Amino acid sequence: MIQNKLAIFGGKPVGKIPFIKPSPLSKLEINAANDVLKSGLLSRAGHGPIVKDFEKNFARYHDVKYAISTTSGTTALHTAICALGIGQGDEVLVPALTFVSTASVILQEKATPVFVDIKPSDFCMNSIEIERKITKKTKAIIVVHLYGHPADMDAILKIAKKYNIIVIEDCAQAHGAKYKQKLVGTLGDIGCFSFYQTKNMTCGEGGMIITNNKNIFRDCVALVNHGQLKDVVKTYDYDRIGFNYHMTELQATIGNVQLTRLETMNQERRINASLYRSLLKDTELQLQEDVGEIEHVYYSLTALLPLSFTKKRNWFLDAMNKENCELNRIYPMPLNKTSLFKPLGQSCPKAEDVCARLFNFYVNPGIKRKTIINTCKAVKKILLYLKKEHETR
């Protein structure tokens, strides 16, 4: 009994040392970054040769005509919204379960985000709910491929075509994921990516937009470049209001290397997720399902606590930390319930239920097998305690 005492109550932790996340970088990225630092050319107003090379490589990887780099995934989404002319009076459908940027960029242009509920199986936008939210004001749908799982694109694209609505794919957590053998970001009108520290491929910060539409491409180029299609420092002339969303040479050189490693890193994420699934198959946890003909890239492996433990989620995470087996919670509440969006008065009950019970396992490349095994041991140890506690009430 003493051996199974939870660490949060003074027992011996399952893990010997606190959880350490492995670095996403290899010597290849470090060497490439050193080369840029030695050159002394960190930025060329968004037109540096390495930035251009990264854009070409990213477009080639996705087999699309155009790629435009930005400073972040958020600015990639904002640029896309602006390029489409979305503004006051327009509505954009977004899933209730996603990061704030998916919806905040809509508010930035004085348009209205309309939240769509999710499927409890894969946690992505429920295509059945989409059609119920469409009005004459609906101008676009932002689809999020959440936690690396592609959304139900066939159904979503069919609805978009029926109502003549633009589809933006938020691929911030899904680099290299596939839907029916097609890479995400290539299925809708515009694909937006993030290269933040935690993503499947990273530059520290950075973003990318991809499209096959020449007009959208030209608008995005101008928006990122102070409202000018040409080199600003040569003309100092401007066609429209724009932004300084330029990626640096240092970010781009890291991104170039990360792109060459993406398939290998994603495969390691799948292997790690598979080990978690195998070790936790006899628990009552609900793990994110692989729904449809997809290739999941596991930004994280997401799970739900049993309904009877709903109010214990935060305590459960604290208890796991005490066992030196850290977990995450992305995202602990749906956007429609946050202070920013609550005044809109929108309800998404499935997302609200999922968020109350949700937590995430780290599957990052470089995590040791022993760490995964210990994490699963700690999960089982704490679930057993919660089950006994619940039975004695």
Give a structural overview.
The chain is of the alpha/beta class and 393 residues long. The chain has twelve helices and 13 strands. The protein has helices at 27-39, 49-62, 73-83, 101-108, 127-133, 153-163, 214-224, 232-235, 249-279, 313-322, 349-357, 369-391, and strands at 66-70, 91-95, 112-116, 138-144, 166-170, 178-179, 182-183, 190-194, 207-211, 286-287, 294-295, 301-304, 358-361. The strands form three sheets. Strands 1-9-8-5-4-2-3 form a seven-stranded mixed sheet, with helices on both faces. A three-stranded antiparallel sheet has the order 7-6-11, with no helix packed on it. α9 crosses α12. It is globular. The two termini are 20 Å apart. 48% of the residues are buried.
Q: What strand line-up does the widest sheet have? A: 1-9-8-5-4-2-3
Compute the average pLDDT. 95
Shape: globular
**Main sheet makeup:** 7 strands, mixed
Order of helices and strands: HHEHEHEHEHEEEEEHHHEEEHHEH
Unreliable segments of 5+ consecutive residues:
none
Helix content: 25-40%
Number of helices: 12
**Structural Rg:** 22 Å
Structural class of the secondary elements?
alpha/beta
Range of strand content: 5-15%
- CA-CA gap between termini: 20 Å
Number of strands: 13
